[in-house]
Design a protein that fits this description.
- The chain is of the alpha/beta class and 377 residues long.
- The chain has one domain: Arginase, Chain A.
- The chain is 40% helix and 9% strand.
- The chain has a 7-stranded parallel β-sheet, with helices on both faces.
- Helix 8 links the parallel strand 6 and strand 7.
- Helix 1 packs across helix 9, helix 7 packs parallel to helix 12 and helix 8 runs parallel beside helix 9.
Amino acid sequence: MPTLIHRAEYGQYDFGPEHPFAPGRLAVLLDLIRCLGHSVAPVAAPAATREEILSVHDEALVAMVEALDHGDTRPEAERYGLDTADNPVFPGMDLAARWLVGGTLHGARLLLAGTETRVLQLGGGLHHAQKDRAAGFCLYNDLAVAIQAFLDQGWRVAYLDIDLHHGDGVQNLFYGHDRVLTISLHETGHYLYPGTGHIQELGAGPARGLSVNVPFEPFTEGEGYLEAFEEVVPRALEQFAPHVLVIQAGADAHFADPLGDLGLTTQTFQTLYRRILELAAEHAKGRTLFTLGGGYEPQVVARVWAILYFTLMELPLPTDLPEEWLGRWQHLLGPEVGRTLHDQVPAFPEIPGRGERTRRNRDVVARLLDSLLRYWL
């Protein structure tokens, strides 16, 4: 049975009521799983220590987070990505971030110990945080701390990011490391934050060919997304032969997410989750560490991540959303939420230009593989 990791303190990672990265998303998710008949009894992992944060982050960044947390006024805070619209200061921010890092790190340690092969961290996924600065709602990079723990034990790590946004922090932290493969599938940075994740970003030095980016045209739908996934991800994993897969499972590539323009459905996500588990079984003895991540429409993230939970647990997928849950969270879900766990089919009207989007996406994949194969072979 996969291990779940979560604790109530994750709710302390709270940038305020107007910020899109709302901790309430997790409360809605956990309640949905319970209302669907499953008792959630997650492991409550300890917070990461300062030293564990410093395994990937600079002392200056950690010291700045701590100082702002203590109420100090630091005019240079913005240089560290702090006290900004994306990363406003809030009381308890250092410990709140360390709770999330600690959960993901604990998941890595369970896998290293061999006591588990599948772990779902119901939080985390802070993939934008850089070595020397916070970025994009991410104070510390829990994924990178977990990856470093694997590296310290000699493991080869494949990092797979299906968030709407490019996983730039993880990529940059390991851009020259020959035991980390980073794969990010995301909306193209030509139109979307953080503006990176282009196919020319291939890694550096001994890690050349180990940074893999699949940038999609806006409004790319599930069929095109899955086609590109199958062209790139299995080949990369076969070439790299990882010991473990670390997955950032952001839900914001869903068509209803307000911060982006990809067109995935709940059905697409279910297919992705199943395929990732198949690939993990084939290439990494089934070892997977899933985190959550982006996702800014409460009724979407609850359904998408509930599907992730049921898929990892190998449980039958429910059909209908519980009336009790719908009633309790109606103020967050909005009037447009349906009555089923999966999206209705068709989920949205056809968006003009599908043929041209398909052509551009296929061209990107072909050029990416052409660049990678010279290093892989």
